[in-house]
Design a protein that fits this description.
Layout lengths: L9 E6 L2 E6 L37 E3 L6 E3 L5 E3 L10 E3 L1 H23 L1 E7 L6 E7 L5 E5 L3 E5 L3 E9 L9 E10 L6 E8 L4 H20 L7
Antiparallel strand pairs: 1-2, 3-4, 5-6, 7-8, 7-13, 8-9, 9-10, 11-12, 12-13
Length: about 230
């Protein structure tokens, strides 16, 4: 286990929104996570904030777990997984928030798992002309990019400023490109200067090439999502 994963213990907590499995230490929270929103007080929402239906004894009010706004059952009936808030079970969300959460599900179900499984690359630091074969993966707490070879690096995700995916195989008609590497820039804690690191996919084994391509595609998803996924 790397140093960045030394405090990964989690605890089960109950909030008004439902059961959540959260890190015991706030410093171990995922940069992709979201805080629970404050609920709009019942006395401030006499009507549904979507369809304007008046609440009464029959028409009850419900709070969306993602935005905290108040809705009638018709406008807030969907229960959708919300891993960004660490909910154990699917939770009630309004139609707009449910759509966003459903779009994010692929990122959590696929891309994050690919990144945490890791892939092998030749890594070049800065302007060096020497590269090192390293296994690169996202830490279990999703806070660090961990690189292991003869050397060892732990890069905090929130310190990464740019990610450029390198491709080859562009055709005149467009498409058919393949990710072959990436260049990222990040800040080392205590320094304002950017450090550059280049990743090049290994060509040794076809299975490694396929795994590396999938890993790079997942990193592209993270960088493209920007503030959609990263809590900055």
């Amino acid at each position: 286990m790397s140093g960045c994963e030394a405090c990964d213990a989690k605890k089960l907590v109950r909030s008004p929104s439902g059961l959540r499995m959260v890190p015991e230490h706030r410093s171990a929270r995922s940069p992709f996570g979201l805080d629970e929103p404050p609920w709009v007080p019942d006395k401030e929402c006499p009507r549904c904030m979507q369809c304007d239906t008046k609440f009464d004894f029959i028409t009850r009010k419900h709070h969306c777990r993602r935005c905290g706004k108040c809705f009638c059952d018709k406008c807030c009936s969907k229960k959708v997984p919300l891993p960004r808030m660490c909910f154990v079970d699917p939770v009630r969300q309004c139609a707009e928030c449910a759509l966003i959460s459903q779009k994010e599900s692929e990122f959590y179900d696929k891309q994050l798992k690919v990144l945490m499984n890791g892939a092998t690359f030749f890594v070049t630091l800065g302007t060096s002309d020497k590269s090192e074969l390293m296994v690169c993966r996202l830490s279990n707490n999703q806070r660090y990019l961990v690189l292991d070879g003869d050397s060892h690096y732990e890069i905090e995700i929130i310190q990464i400023s740019t990610v450029q995916i390198l491709t080859e195989g562009f055709t005149p008609g467009g498409g058919n490109t393949r990710a072959i590497g990436m260049v990222l820039q990040y800040k080392v804690p205590g320094s304002e200067e950017l450090t550059q690191m280049k990743f090049t996919a290994s060509e040794d084994f076809s299975c490694n090439k396929k795994l590396s391509t999938s890993w790079l595609a997942a990193m592209h998803k993270v960088s493209k999502g920007g503030k959609t996924y990263r809590r900055v």
